[in-house]
Write a structure and sequence with these properties.
- This protein has one domain (3-664).
- α3 packs antiparallel against α9 (196-209) and α4 runs parallel beside α22 (485-514).
- The protein has 669 residues and is an all-alpha fold.
- It is built from 29 helices and no strands.
- 51% of the residues are buried.
């Protein structure tokens, strides 16, 4: 990692952290980091490659960027991607909006649920600036098109929660960075996971060292790139000139056939009847094992049909409200747990030796230094995070189990992006809900439950943008590009601190400037902890357990443990099936399906990607069967072109939207 590549990477990461909220909610072109394969990174990479080539031609070889330097820039930007998206954007609204909503919700006021939240977690709106801090956050402080000054933000109201949340976010995310370093060698070298997104990125960068190598001279690459790029560009232009241009529809509508799929529709699978072509998914599926693509294609159909059958028997799997006890949430959790068990089982010797080295003991296996320091980083940060949560009044075992489940989600999401490249994760696993089902409301008590739910709205709101998943991709790119993994980890931690220091204040500033969004998932999710807690309090009072639940302390609470057995049964079934499928892949060559099916089930992302994964699977099977290995290899540039064209096409609205706002002062359509 050279000085200039590090400087450019840090600058780009800082810009991303500062600009993300402004782009998402002021410019509103599209989400800057909307999934695990953000166009701002991969479309921006294509622009960077173009600029590097022009610079080398104009200024000569001295200023030429090597592929390793460009890879270093991408690595640092990837390390920043998990911070300014939902993680930094959801925190301010999750902790401020409840103090506004309590004004309009009599049930909240009656049960005083907002007062149950530890004061350290919420902004202070009780002083002279309290009304301005709260009302300004909701409606905005700016007048007309003028922006407020940085000093106009009532920072004093935010000092208390920032002193709590900033260390927690730093410890939690740093721990996942350490885990990414621990898991990397096992996944990349021992298990030979495909890392399709990192391989795609390296395919673009590697040619830079070859002065325009085979990929950029390949006709099939440019044909696919041009077709997809023009389709994306045309569909975007149609938003502004609908009477002049004809959009290219990438969605098919088979809803007229819904009566023939009554069971599917009952299982809330109607979205499967409107399949959509996603070019990046098709391209990535081509590079995966066939059982993975097939599982992603048929999994949502199987699950929604099963859910529809259950509805016929009066059993509703799919919840009406998230962050509540539901069969589906425990099915997801069981799937995550089962895959985590298989991950730990397959690498048990390596992980054990890494743990031994991490605590200063000798090991029988040679462990790279970056993995040893990653383990130490994880252990220290995880322990400090537990202690930090205990200061909220949570029992130590509750805090520890919460973090175990939270780390489970991040590890499994990272595993899935490494193994499948499925960059949209639409499933939600909330550790607070798992603890609710495991211990029961009477054991935890209303105050602990609302605290756990608040932690979920900040740390676990969108696992599909988990920072660890971006870091896992960055480490693989570092390995492919011969960049030091130890340096990648060190500079990644610098990027983490930089991104947190910039993204959170930036999000708060723009929410006071424009007002917090009155719609969208973070706005709705901010109500979940309190709606669920009110429901819990009502049930405890009806059962005569409310006084016991509020007065018991410490280990004495365990006497009131009352697990929800139906939900734990769903957890156990999904975990067993995931482990069964994982074992089937290990011991039987003919095993047709991958356990990834239990992570996505019938989630929105799974239904959106199913058709495209199926197309990618069909193309790969047809090429291999009728053209052999030679045709399969020849089509690789075509598939890379599909991905690159889509990334470039989705990057254009980000640039045009920003220019439109800066020049005309208008947000995107």
């Amino acid at each position: 990692m050279t000085f200039r590549s590090t400087l450019i990477g840090l600058t780009a990461a800082a810009f991303l952290a500062l600009y993300c909220y402004f782009s998402d909610h002021v410019v509103r072109a599209s989400e800057l980091v909307g999934n695990l394969m953000p166009p701002v990174v991969y479309g921006g990479l294509l622009v960077l490659l173009l600029l590097a080539a022009l610079l080398a031609r104009v200024a000569g070889g001295k200023l030429k960027f090597s592929g390793k330097e460009i890879a270093a820039v991408v690595i640092l930007v990837l390390c920043a991607c998990g911070i300014p998206g939902r993680l930094a954007q959801s925190m301010p609204s999750s902790i401020m909006l409840p103090q506004h909503d309590v004004r309009t919700k009599p049930g909240w006021r009656q049960e005083r649920v907002v007062d149950l939240v530890p004061k350290r977690m919420l902004p202070d709106v009780s002083g002279e600036q309290g009304d301005r801090a709260l009302n300004g956050f909701i409606t905005g402080l700016a007048l007309g098109d003028r922006h407020i000054r940085l000093s106009d933000v009532p920072w004093s109201a935010w000092a208390r929660p920032l002193l709590f949340w900033s260390p927690l976010l730093l410890l939690f995310v740093a721990a996942t960075f350490g885990l990414a370093a621990v898991f990397h060698r096992q996944w990349s070298q021992h298990e030979q996971l495909p890392y399709p997104i990192s391989v795609f990125t390296h395919a673009l960068i590697a040619d830079d060292d070859q002065n325009g190598g085979s990929l950029f001279r390949n006709r099939m690459f440019w044909i696919a790139f041009a077709i997809v790029f023009l389709i994306e560009l045309d569909n975007y232009a149609c938003l502004y000139w609908p009477n002049l241009l004809i959009p290219v529809s990438l969605r098919f509508d088979f809803t007229a056939a819904a009566p023939a799929f009554e069971t599917l529709v009952k299982g809330k699978g109607a979205a499967l009847l409107t399949p959509q072509i996603l070019f990046p998914v098709i391209g990535l599926a081509y590079f995966l094992a066939s059982d993975i693509s097939l599982s992603m294609a048929v999994g949502p159909w199987i699950y929604c049909c099963i859910a529809g059958v259950c509805v016929g028997y009066g059993v509703e799997l799919r919840p009406g409200r998230e962050m509540a006890l539901s069969i589906e949430s425990f099915l997801y959790s069981g799937g995550y747990f089962g895959i985590l068990v298989m991950v730990l089982y397959t690498g048990r010797h390596y992980y054990w030796n890494t743990l031994r080295r991490g605590v200063g003991l000798a090991s029988k296996e040679e462990i790279p230094d970056y993995a040893v320091w990653g383990m130490r980083l994880f252990l220290v940060c995880a322990l400090l995070a537990v202690l930090h949560l205990v200061t909220l009044g949570l029992a130590w075992y509750v805090a520890a189990l919460y973090l175990v489940f939270a780390f489970m989600v991040y590890v499994v999401v990272s595993r899935i992006i490494a193994e499948t490249g499925a960059f949209m994760i639409g499933t939600f696993v909330f550790p607070g809900v798992l603890l609710w089902g495991l211990f029961g409301a009477a054991c935890l008590g209303p105050q602990a439950m609302v605290t756990l739910f608040m932690l979920c709205t900040v740390l676990m709101l969108v696992p599909g943008r988990a920072p660890m998943a971006f870091v896992a991709q960055a480490f693989k790119l570092a390995e492919l590009s011969d960049v030091s993994l130890a340096k990648a980890l060190r500079w990644g931690l610098v990027v983490l601190v930089l991104a947190l220091a910039l993204a959170i204040p930036s999000s708060i500033y723009w929410q006071y400037d424009r007002g917090t969004p009155a719609y969208g998932y973070p706005r709705i999710a901010a109500t979940y902890p309190f709606e669920n807690t009110v429901e819990v309090i009502h049930k405890l009072k009806a059962q005569g357990l409310h006084e016991q639940a509020t007065q018991a302390t410490g280990v004495a609470r365990l006497a009131s443990i009352a697990p929800s057995w139906p939900h734990l049964a769903a957890f156990a079934i999904a975990a067993f099936l995931a482990m069964l499928f994982g074992a089937g892949r290990l011991f039987f060559r003919f095993w047709p399906l991958h356990p990834v099916i239990f992570l996505f089930l019938g989630g929105s992302a799974a239904m959106l990607m199913a058709f495209s994964f199926g197309l990618g699977w069909l193309i790969k099977v047809a090429a291999s069967r009728y053209g052999g290995a030679r045709l399969y290899q020849r089509l690789k540039p075509l598939m890379i072109g599909l991905i690159a064209g889509s990334m470039a096409g989705q990057f254009v609205p980000l640039v045009v939207g920003t220019l439109r706002y800066l020049i005309l002062g208008q947000s995107s359509l």
